[in-house]
Specification:
Blueprint lengths: L6 E5 L5 E6 L4 E4 L4 E4 L3 E7 L8 H14 L5 E7 L5 E6 L4 E7 L6 E4 L4 E5 L3 E6 L3 H6 L5 E6 L3 E7 L2 E6 L4 E5 L3 E5 L3 E6 L3 H6 L5 E6 L2 E6 L3 H11 L13 H9 L6
Antiparallel strand pairs: 1-2, 2-7, 3-6, 3-10, 4-7, 5-6, 8-13, 9-12, 9-16, 10-13, 11-12, 14-19, 15-18, 16-19, 17-18
Length: about 270
């Protein structure tokens, strides 16, 4: 194997974290801000990119970091290496309520495509790159733009989904339509495209967006019930207005009261 072979255990139900067990000289690479706790003898090192091209000189490091910049992620990642003589544990926490998904890339043909912010951590040697869409419609309306994240290699990787997780195994030619925000990721054999919802009433008043993600098998698809963008928009809509508490919250008169007392700031 090119990637380090790591053992793991996922803890918790709604607010999960993954505990990774490292043998001596084994390492795991993680997104900045995902670290939770670790034993002694584990060292931390900040690196450019994902560490998969660290032996290819300066240009390899810059290329690895540049790929991450295009996905909107930090140029840097953190490597946790076990310098001890026995097994040690390091843990990484999910950023919001949901599920952590273990992805064995060796079982998926060495590649998995996911949302840009889904990646949590992986065995050192796994490449965290970008996946460009070659279709204009998918790029403009897919919710993730032209760029998604791809995980390549033969090791373990961990991605995060919001809310409840659904894993769908699609047969050859079988199609699944998903809200673009609810799509977590899929194996490389799956054909991913965008479909217009259709119908004037659906478009104007449906409240579900203008496009579906259409995924056609064979392959594996992961779907989340609560995308972080949907959670954030609901919290923002329910939050008190700037400068004071919302009056009459939860009632029809609340909005009228805002107009009467002049509190109509947007």
């Amino acid at each position: 194997m090119n990637a380090h072979e790591i053992d793991y255990r996922i803890q918790g139900e709604e607010m999960q974290f993954v505990e990774i067990e490292l043998d001596p000289q084994e390492a795991v690479v993680a997104e900045s801000g995902s670290f939770m706790m670790m034993n002694d003898s584990i060292g931390m090192e900040t690196i450019f990119g994902d560490g998969s091209k660290q032996n290819e000189g300066v240009m390899g490091k810059l290329f690895s970091a540049g790929k991450r910049l295009l996905t909107g992620e930090s140029l840097f990642m953190t490597v946790f290496l076990n310098h001890g003589q026995s097994k040690r544990q390091v843990s990484f926490a999910a950023p919001y309520p949901g599920k952590i998904i273990p992805i064995d890339l060796s079982e998926l043909g060495g590649k998995f495509i996911c949302q840009k912010d889904a990646f949590l951590c992986a065995a050192k040697g796994v490449s965290v790159g970008i996946e460009f869409s070659r279709k204009l419609g998918r790029g403009l309306f897919g919710g993730e733009g032209f760029i998604m994240q791809k995980l390549e290699g033969d090791g373990m990787a961990f991605v995060h989904a919001g809310g409840t997780l659904a894993k769908k195994e699609l047969a050859a030619g079988e199609t699944l339509k998903v809200d673009t925000g609810c799509l977590v990721g899929f194996s490389q054999q799956v054909n991913y495209d965008i479909e217009f919802v259709g119908g004037i009433k659906n478009t104007l008043f449906g409240g579900e967006g203008l496009f579906f993600a259409q995924l056609t098998g064979p392959g594996t698809v992961y779907v989340q019930s609560l995308p972080f963008s949907r959670l954030a928009s609901r919290i923002w809509a329910a939050a008190p207005k700037m400068g004071g508490q919302r009056k009459g919250e939860g009632s029809i008169l609340g909005g009228i009261g805002d107009l009467i007392d002049g509190d109509n700031r947007f």
